[in-house]
Design brief:
heterodimer, A: about 425 residues, alpha/beta, 7-stranded mixed β-sheet, 30 strands, B: about 200 residues, alpha+beta, 8-stranded antiparallel β-sheet, about 30% strand
């Protein structure tokens, strides 16, 4: 009997041994599974951190290609390389390495890669850019299409709607959103602390105009203010007339690509009177010189020959750039010549030290809308009408700004850049 | 063969009975432990598989090898609700945009397990659906706008989404008695860098 009891005990021990071994194996497998996931996440986080470090270095210095090699970080190491896959693109490749001992004691190295693609950012990507809002606020009824940037504090009242990414340098007023009197709708994210200052000049555009484009400069005589009337023609030509005072000094019709093969057209020291339909691509700018010029006056509709509003594949693209103001003046001969009822402007508009506005007077009454289809960069907010306390137009024009989505990835030739890079693709 | 012998036999039978009961009890305990541990291993392995797949996909939300094709990052999420999300991505990194949708089936659709609560996870790429049987019993999204406010489900305009929270629960395909092993995973503020590009 004693012998059989011993046998039972031994058998029991054997069963226990086998069962606990199986249990231990399952527990170890579960732990190792968890460990593998944790280590992969750890390696990914190292690669992610390194990509952010690399991106920061590139943002601080666009020419930075040094990279990092074998940098110890958070229990692992990382390498960062910076390359230029195309002339204007920068690619950051970050690889995180993590070596860890698994349960059996064997070392396992996990590598994880993050790739970031950047390209220069142009001002035309902003649906609306305002350097200084002064006391004006985005309010209920306002809808902003495309990215919006305020290089200062963004005033908000009621429920304006922003469909693109919104960035500000100095946050919002009220500072904390949502607030009792401010509940904006952000459909494309919001980020504060982002500074994109206006350029101090249009030197790069002027350089492009003088080498491969067309640079207009005032002739020495006759005396008088210098200006250039330009009419864009739907057949791909441009008709321009230079004036010095009241004297016409040139009258030319030529192909846009002949006048400015690279698309950069600049009047230095004179204003531009612009209208017409563009067939092709150009940036037309007025740059102040010796206190003269620097304004673009829009004297008629400006349209694309192939309208991107109905054909997104259109390649027609226009930039209108002014050191001072881009404005819609009262027509010559007003009031004998009535002011047009509506204006359509299809272009990326840039008023560096002034604003984009329309002249208005009480005698003109309510005259429809100024519709801008493109992008607007302005130092301050210009007026288009006189209104009452409720924002209703008393006389002048209402305004509609619609973003040309093509400007998210493209820009008119030689259009001013922000001097920074933007992330266009992030691969993890 | 006296009284002591009879007592020995009775004693032995009693002791043997005790040992047998111990063995049977131990067998039950070991069976339970083995079943539960094995279930937990299966559940945890499935969870890691699922989470790894989803993290991979969500990190590439809005990514395309040809960035021109995702010009406006606000349009990357096409639809979102409590139990599903649809977004653009480039699954094969070949420069072609794909639409990836995560959703779940009804619990009655998964017949191959005895668990009445589990369902298929449906991963649909450009209309082609993969049905993943991983013991999924909960798959809930919550969405938040850029100000951190919760967006009601279903999301009327996916452009509002800035971050999202995903809660997943997996259960074992079979129960010991009536108890299913389960594992729970919640990712707070799950998002993609590509929602903030440009």
């Amino acid at each position: 009997m004693g012998r059989s009891a011993i046998l039972m005990v031994m058998g029991l021990s054997l069963v226990l041994l086998m069962a606990t071994s199986g249990l231990k194996r399952d527990v170890n497998l579960a732990y190792e599974n968890y460990l593998t996931y944790t280590n992969s996440t750890h390696a990914h986080n190292i690669a992610l951190s390194a990509a952010n470090m690399g991106a920061n270095a590139v943002f601080m210095n666009n020419a930075w290609t040094t990279g990092y090699s074998g940098v110890s970080y958070d229990g692992g190491t990382f390498d960062v390389t910076v390359t230029n896959p195309t002339a204007n693109q920068t690619k950051i490749t970050s690889v995180g390495h993590l070596t860890k001992a698994m349960l059996g004691g064997n070392l396992v190295t996990i590598n994880d890669t993050v790739q970031v693609l950047l390209q220069p950012s142009t001002f035309s990507k902003f649906g609306v850019y305002i350097n200084n809002m002064s006391g004006v606020a985005w309010a209920t009824g306002d809808t902003v299409w495309g990215p919006c940037h305020i290089e200062g504090t963004m005033n908000v009242l009621g429920t304006p709607v922003f469909y693109g990414k919104v960035t500000t340098k100095s946050g919002t007023n009220p500072a904390k959103l949502p607030a009792a009197n401010a509940t904006p709708k952000f459909y494309g994210t919001y980020q504060s602390g982002v500074s994109v200052p206006l350029p101090t000049n249009f030197g790069a555009l002027q350089t492009a105009a003088s080498s491969g484009g067309k640079l207009f400069t005032p002739p020495g005589s006759p005396a008088g203010a210098y200006s250039v009337n330009m009419t864009l023609l739907a057949n791909g030509q441009i008709h321009y007339q230079e004036y010095k005072g009241a004297t016409k000094v040139s009258d030319v019709t030529t192909a846009l690509t002949t006048l400015a093969p690279n698309g950069a057209i600049v009047v230095s020291g004179g204003d531009i009177n612009l209208q017409g339909t563009i067939n092709g691509q150009a940036t037309i700018g007025s740059i102040a010189a010796s206190g003269n010029g620097g304004n673009v006056h829009i004297v008629g509709n400006i349209k694309y020959n192939n309208d991107p509003q109905t054909n997104p594949a259109s390649t027609d693209m226009l930039g209108i750039v002014a050191d001072n103001n881009v404005d819609i003046p009262l027509p010559s001969g007003y009031p004998s010549t009535a002011a047009p009822h509506d204006y359509l402007i299809e272009a990326a508009v840039f008023a560096r030290t002034g604003n984009f506005s329309a002249a208005y007077t009480s005698s003109m009454g309510k005259l429809g809308a100024v519709t801008l289809y493109g992008s607007l960069v302005t130092n301050t907010i210009g007026a288009f009408a006189a209104g009452d306390a409720n924002g209703n137009v008393l006389y002048g024009y209402s305004n509609k700004f619609n973003f040309d989505e093509r400007l998210m990835v493209g820009a008119p030739p030689a259009y001013p850049t922000t001097g920074t890079l933007e992330v266009i693709s992030w691969k993890e | 063969m006296g009284n002591s012998t009879i007592l020995d036999i009775i004693g032995s039978v009693v002791i043997a009975g005790f040992l047998l009961m111990i063995v049977l009890n131990l067998y039950g305990t070991i069976s339970n432990a083995t079943f539960v541990t094995n279930n937990e291993l299966v559940v945890q392995t499935n969870l890691v598989t699922l989470v790894t797949l989803m993290e991979h996909d969500f990190r590439r939300l809005g990514y395309c090898a040809n960035p021109v094709k995702v010009a406006d990052p606000t349009l990357n999420i096409k639809a979102a609700s409590a139990h599903s999300i649809s977004f653009v991505t480039d699954v094969n990194c070949n420069g072609n945009l794909d639409t990836l949708t995560y959703s779940v089936s009804d619990t009655s659709a998964l017949h191959s397990t005895t668990n009445p609560h589990d369902m298929f996870l449906l991963r649909t790429i450009d209309g082609v659906t993969q049905r993943l049987s991983l013991g999924l019993t909960m798959f809930n999204f919550s969405y938040y706008d850029v100000l951190g406010d919760s967006i009601p489900n279903p999301v009327a305009d996916p452009r509002q989404i800035y971050t999202m929270q995903l809660s997943i629960e997996l259960q074992s395909p079979a129960a010991y008695d009536t108890t299913y092993s389960y594992a729970y995973w919640r990712q707070l503020r799950l998002t993609s860098q590509n929602l903030r590009n440009r």
